[in-house]
Specification:
The complex is a heterotrimer of chains A (805), B (262) and C (220). By secondary structure, chain A is α/β, with parallel strands linked by helices. Chain A contains 22 helices and 30 strands. The two termini of chain A are 43 Å apart. The two termini of chain C are 29 Å apart. In chain C, helix 3 crosses helix 4 and helix 6 runs antiparallel to helix 7. Chain C has 220 residues and is mostly helical. In chain C, strands 1-2 form a two-stranded antiparallel sheet. The chains are: A alpha/beta (805), B alpha+beta (262), C mainly alpha (220).
């Protein structure tokens, strides 16, 4: 989240799309209710009338997978309205704080010119040569600008051109949204473009789990920047994270392509530390840009010092060579293909249940059979740990050796949990874990001690030093405080804990496990354990003394965009920060960089995390910097592409699917066509159950609330198929079939698109074959296809057929 | 002490049903074995193991759809039929306003369950042997008398349930109804006047019947006739009978003697 | 002291049935009264009164049925007797107040096997008994299947019967045990006999008929 949960209460308009907080983030709904009590509007856009939709002031249905078309239409609406009524918008913000005025390489061409493609596409590689996705620069390398926003090559004009095709009629034809409903959403949300007004976009997996999920996120950013909603109270682009600590998990890089703190991973080509730093450190010549990420060398070297201690010296590149280097994709689908193909022989599944949660579950389960060994670390017996006795298989045929390590639940261990607000909150142990269950930290500590012993004993072990020289001094029973302090970092000269990442150095004199968390555990104590409800000075719900928020306890990131170039808040009722000219300091939240306001001589542009210093409406491909600075894989602007399996031809261009998605061609990768499978299917969670289900399908009270796997379908489709409420039905895709109870509802309606009727059905994906309540897994149906940028599977839109069982 | 009340605002309820589970957890009630009943509702009904149940209703009108969520539980009436008819004093009016229930005293007669205008109390045990107990929402008496709020209110994330002094809740409810009137002309504070005032009030956007609530809940006529007329009449009749017989005894004894019988 | 001559009024069978029925009735009254009198209601906690009430109810229903099966003719006669009202009966009603208060026997017509007061008691039981049984069965077995209004009015009717029956029951006991004129009647339900004098005084018509019947047989 750019903002935080409590801040939603400040919003004039909460726009929920690709999410369903009433069901998946029930506690969050308290903040939404507060916003509504204060007169804020709630918009919900969802294929199905969800429990969130039930609370909406405006609800609009939208066919799954047409998010960019919908948001693109809104962007067009805003641009048109902005040109007609500029007084209703914050034009200073647009011109000064975004790259709207930046001039783009004239060679750049977009989907409006190239039938859905951007310039530089290579069909054989399914990727782009992004050399034209660049700015026009002056002799100092600073981008040229047109502050009147009228140059045909300026970002604003290109944006306008890009979305000129996204008319309300086209949106309605593509998304199946009634035009009046679409325009109602546009009007309600565009109202937040006025200075002093704020609208927030709250989203979740309905946004990301598409082949163009990353671009859907980008489209939110573009819309929010046009409306000047980033950085302000009650604004932002806010991802409601799907697990209590998934924010912490990504912050600390439980991801294949990053190091802790979202640092770039070393690639095969980064043979030396210097090469890695040269490639990954963004360079920018505009003196007004803080270009904060240029500090990357300090963070990387401090991280290496935390990992390797005295073994990390200037002479050995601070242990850089101990880091694994790789350029391959190790995301979920790739890993399971590698298992299926016999390349990966062993698997540790930690608090995860891919046999239920992964796409194309039949293949996922089959892939597990090919492993030599599998370790399942969990609170319960999971489907994954018990794949060898799943229905219709003979356990004797499966040779995989399976280990189950019982883990402690969150209430049975101490440590920090980082929520969607980026708040690291310290928790205490409430009870002992049952039996031999252990906290994860103890399990990994025990494991690592044994691994180190094995490596110590084996002089010929590959990359031996990476293991043997690793600092691992947490004791027999690892102390979470010690780990937290290591993450925070030390000044190695004094032995004192770091106060913030601003003081980290690249010369090896500081250590820091994760620069983003530097300041979370200082000499003053464990900041994450703070429980002070003081909300001074502005009483806008920042609660800056409650726990600790990364970075540097900043509650709303990009908050320098919440003030005008002189440092005065756009919204004087809900200021995030305010420049105190007399004291020459910022009041309120921790400002993004301590620089004076932008208009001052020493002032900087507000978006300190981009190289440009301004926010990107156009995602240029910069020559240096981390992966993202080098542009998105699939375009500079979000463009609508149909889901991989779609019942219609793309109404917006001749390019049917995202042109950069990786196509899998394994023996179990099946694609269904709309003749055989004409119905759109989507999957979701319900409030009564949790993820792959083990934590709730074993609890009698949760099972009582939702005892069975079910499928939701419209009354119209049910009538067409002769299905009555509570009938057992079979849903089939090219990959598998699911039998479950039919729930016939008014909350799904057929989409009428250009005269064509498209049905959509949906189902929860919580069930599996182990536990108190068992049922078919929805992911038996979902395809192995991922987002072009992140490879997150497209769980949210695929094709099926349905019949009475 | 001021009387307490729960205010339920279905326009804020997201039907997460945390209340159902919190209630079961605090009161240590077992889960009811059940199946999917073609809706999100479950368990099927109130029962000795279920004091609260949320009802779901899809309401379609004027081309728009609403999904109504209504709480079903004890309303803690001021004029409570259950207290009127309870023969053992197991059900009573607590000084804090709610209907207190002392399970130990319950004889299992089931009158509360049969006379409640909301059909709330449920009987556990066997009506054949007669060995059974009534059960219903206890207003978390053990919590509220110890300055804690009821478990359902405590857990409610969107603050659709609120708890406080009855007059405070009345004010809040009236205020909320006023706000809703613009969008819902039928908005109504259910429980302000019903049965002398309910200690669980609902802010209803629609007419009560749309939410599955009786439009004009009253004590059943049988309660009034029985408890108000017949029972007192019974005392009088029995009293007069005994009195008459005593009088007869005195008179007859004297007369029979003076007759010089024999 | 001359040995008093005694005449039999009730057979052993009749007396056994009577006392079993009385026991059932008192059991029902005692276990039912807790539902009526709030300040003793707490005694009924944990349903023990309800279990006993059910046993009492079975006996209460069972005894008349059994009696019908064992002595059908006698049962029918008894009913007939209760329903047959003659001059003596209306005379009894007119004379009863003076008779029972003042001991004025002059106006009291001679009575048959049972006097009109007993007939009234019997008729009341004929009325309230079925009410008890029917409403009782409804409440016992059908409370979950029938609308609650049925239960509610069943409770009411059960209660009406209860009040009427109990009041009359007081009168019945009083007259059987305590009333100065009636001393001597109680033995009719213990050893089955009353004195000749008592029979002559209270059931003159019956006594004469009985005497007539007995003479020839006695002469044999």
């Amino acid at each position: 989240m750019t903002n935080h949960w409590n801040d939603i209460a400040n919003s004039d308009c909460v726009f929920i799309i690709g999410g369903n907080p009433a069901e998946n983030h029930p506690a969050a709904f308290g903040h939404i209710t507060k916003a509504k009590e204060r007169g804020g509007k709630l918009i919900v856009v969802d294929p199905r009338f969800s429990r969130s939709a039930a609370k909406a002031d405006v609800y609009a249905p939208m066919r799954s997978g047409t998010d960019v078309a919908f948001i693109g239409g809104m962007i067009k609406y805003v641009i048109d309205d902005m040109l007609a009524n500029p007084q209703n918008y914050n034009m200073v913000y647009l011109k000064e704080y975004t790259n709207a005025s930046y001039l783009v390489n004239p060679a750049f061409k977009g989907p409006a010119d190239l039938d859905g493609l951007f310039s530089g596409y290579d069909a054989s590689k399914r990727s782009y040569d992004k050399s034209t996705w660049s700015y026009q620069v002056d002799d100092k390398g600073i981008p040229k600008k047109d502050m009147t926003l009228s140059d045909p090559n300026c970002v604003f004009q290109l944006l306008k051109k890009q979305y000129a095709r996204y008319t309300a009629d086209k949106v309605s034809e593509t998304c199946g949204t009634p035009k009046d409903k679409f325009l109602e959403v546009c009007r309600a949300f565009a109202d937040t473009g006025a200075p002093g007004k704020a609208g927030t976009i709250l989203y979740a997996m309905g946004t990301t789990q598409h082949t163009n999920g990353s671009q859907v996120c980008s489209s939110y950013c573009v819309l929010q920047l046009l409306l000047a909603n980033i950085g302000v109270c009650g604004g932002g682009v806010n991802a409601a994270r799907g697990e209590s600590n998934v924010q912490g998990a990504t912050d600390h890089a439980l991801l294949f392509h990053l190091l802790p703190g979202y640092l770039e991973r070393p690639l095969n080509t980064d043979e030396t530390l210097q090469k890695y730093l040269d490639r990954s450190t963004p360079k920018w010549t505009d003196p007004k840009s803080a270009n904060w990420v240029q500090n990357l060398p300090k963070y990387l070297v401090s991280m290496l010092k935390a990992w390797y201690g005295d073994a990390a010296t200037k002479d050995n590149e601070f242990g850089y060579q101990y880091l694994p280097k790789g350029s391959d994709n190790y995301s979920f689908i790739s890993l399971f293909h590698a298992m299926y193909d016999g390349i990966i022989k062993g698997l540790m599944v930690w608090g995860m249940n891919p046999a239920v949660g992964g796409p194309n579950a039949n293949m996922t389960r089959k892939a597990l059979e090919k492993l030599d060994w599998l370790v399942s670390v969990d609170l319960w017996h999971t489907e994954t740990g018990n794949f060898w006795k799943r229905p219709r298989v003979n356990p004797a045929d499966i040779k995989t050796e399976v280990f189950a390590l019982p883990a402690a639940a969150s209430f049975e261990k101490e440590g920090s949990v980082t929520n969607s607000s980026r708040w690291a909150q310290w928790r205490y142990k409430g009870a002992d874990a049952p039996g031999v269950a252990k906290p994860d930290l103890d399990i990994i500590n025990d494991l690592m001690i044994r691994i180190k012993k094995l490596y110590d004993a084996d002089a010929a072990a590959p990359n031996r030093d990476a293991i043997t020289r690793l600092t691992w001094d947490y004791g027999t029973h690892a102390d979470p405080h010690k780990v937290a302090r290591e993450i925070n970092g030390y000044d190695l000269a004094t032995g004192k804990l770091m106060v913030s990442f601003a003081a980290l150095k690249s010369d090896g004199t500081t250590s820091c496990g994760n620069w983003l968390f530097s300041g979370s555990y200082t000499e003053a104590g464990n900041m994450m354990a703070r429980r002070d409800l003081d909300d001074s000075p502005f009483n806008v719900g920042l609660y800056s003394k409650w726990a600790w928020s990364w970075p540097v306890n900043r509650r709303i990131v990009y908050n320098r965009a919440s003030v005008d170039p002189n440092g005065n808040p756009w919204d004087s009722e809900h200021p995030v920060i305010k420049w105190d000219a007399a004291g020459a300091k910022w009041l309120g939240d921790i400002a993004d960089g301590g620089y004076p306001p932008m208009a001052a001589d020493a002032g900087k542009y507000p978006f300190i995390m981009t190289a440009e210093g301004v926010a990107r409406l156009f995602t240029a491909a910069l020559p240096n910097g981390p992966l993202l600075a080098k542009g998105m894989a699939d375009g500079t602007f979000p463009e609508h592409y149909e889901p991989w399996e779609s019942p219609v031809k793309n109404p917006l261009s001749g390019t049917q699917n995202d042109p950069c998605i990786k196509l899998w061609a394994g023996e179990m990768d099946f694609k269904g066509d709309s003749d055989k499978y004409p119905i759109v299917c989507t999957t979701y969670r319900i409030v009564e159950h949790w993820q792959a289900g083990q934590m709730t399908r074993n609890l009698p009270w949760s099972v009582e609330l939702m005892p069975e796997m079910f499928i939701e379908l419209s009354e119209e489709l049910a009538a067409e198929k002769g299905i009555a409420n509570e009938d057992m039905v079979v849903v089939e895709t090219a990959r598998g079939k699911v039998t479950a109870k039919a729930l016939v509802t008014k909350r799904f309606k057929p989409f009428r698109m250009n005269g064509k009727v498209i049905h959509e059905i949906g189902m929860p994906w919580h069930w599996g074959y182990i536990g108190l309540s068992t049922g078919d897994s929805a992911n038996v149906l979902t395809p192995n296809i991922g987002d072009a940028n992140t490879m997150i599977p497209e769980y949210k839109a695929f094709l099926c057929n349905v019949r009475k069982a | 002490m001021a009387e307490k009340a729960i205010l339920f605002d279905p326009t804020k309820c997201t039907a997460c049903r945390g209340c159902q589970v919190a209630c079961k957890q605090w009161n240590e009630l077992e889960a009811v074995p059940t199946v999917n009943l073609g809706s999100y509702e479950n368990p099927p009904d109130l029962s000795p193991n279920t004091y609260i149940k949320m009802r779901f209703k899809e309401l379609e009108y004027d081309k728009s759809l609403e999904w109504l969520f209504t709480r079903r539980s004890c309303m803690h009436c001021t004029n409570a039929a259950c207290v009127e008819v309870c023969p053992t004093g197991a059900l009573s009016h607590h000084p804090l306003g709610f209907i207190d229930y002392n399970e130990d005293l319950c004889s299992g007669c089931g009158y509360c369950s049969q006379f409640c205008p909301f059909q709330v109390p449920r009987m556990s045990g066997s009506s054949i042997t007669g060995i059974r107990k009534a059960s219903k929402c206890l207003f978390c008496a053990d919590r509220v008398t110890n300055n804690l709020i009821p478990a359902c209110v405590k857990t409610c994330p969107p603050h659709a349930l609120q708890f406080g002094d009855q007059d405070q809740m009345l004010l809040l409810g009236r205020q909320r109804v006023k706000e809703l009137k613009a969008k819902y002309p039928d908005a109504y504070l259910y429980g302000e006047d019903e049965l002398g005032g309910l200690h669980v009030m609902y802010v209803l956007p629609h007419k009560p019947t749309v939410h599955g609530l009786p439009a004009d809940p009253r004590l059943p006529a049988s309660t009034t006739v029985w408890q108000g007329i017949l029972q007192p009449a019974g005392y009088v009749l029995a009293g007069l009978t005994v009195l008459g017989l005593g009088l007869n005894y005195l008179v007859a004894r004297a007369n029979v003697k003076s007759h010089g019988k024999g | 002291m001359k040995k008093t001559e005694r005449v039999e009024r009730y057979s052993v069978m009749a007396r056994v049935f009577h006392w079993v029925h009385v026991t059932a009735f008192i059991t029902l009254v005692v276990t039912g009264i807790f539902l009526y009198v709030p300040w003793i209601g707490a005694v009924a906690q944990d349903s023990w009164t309800r279990v006993i009430h059910r046993i009492g109810a079975v006996l209460f229903m069972g005894m008349p049925i059994l009696f019908f099966l064992v002595r059908p003719r006698s049962a029918i006669e008894t009913i007939k007797e209760g329903l047959t009202w003659g001059k003596e009966d209306f005379g009894w009603v007119a004379a009863a107040p003076r008779y029972y208060f003042l001991g004025d026997e002059a106006a009291m017509p001679p009575q048959g096997r049972v006097n009109s007061g007993q007939k009234l008691w019997f008729l009341l039981l004929m009325l309230t008994g079925p009410v008890f049984v029917i409403t009782g069965i409804l409440m016992w077995f059908f409370q979950d299947t029938l609308p609650s209004a049925v239960f509610q009015w069943s409770v009411f009717a059960h209660d009406v019967s209860f009040i009427a029956t109990v009041c009359f029951f007081f009168v019945h006991i009083y007259l059987s045990v305590l009333h100065p004129l009636m001393s001597g009647v109680f033995s009719s339900m213990t050893n089955g006999k009353v004195t000749k004098e008592f029979a002559q005084a209270h059931y003159a018509k019956w006594y004469e008929e009985k005497a007539k019947e007995e003479k020839p047989s006695g002469g044999k």
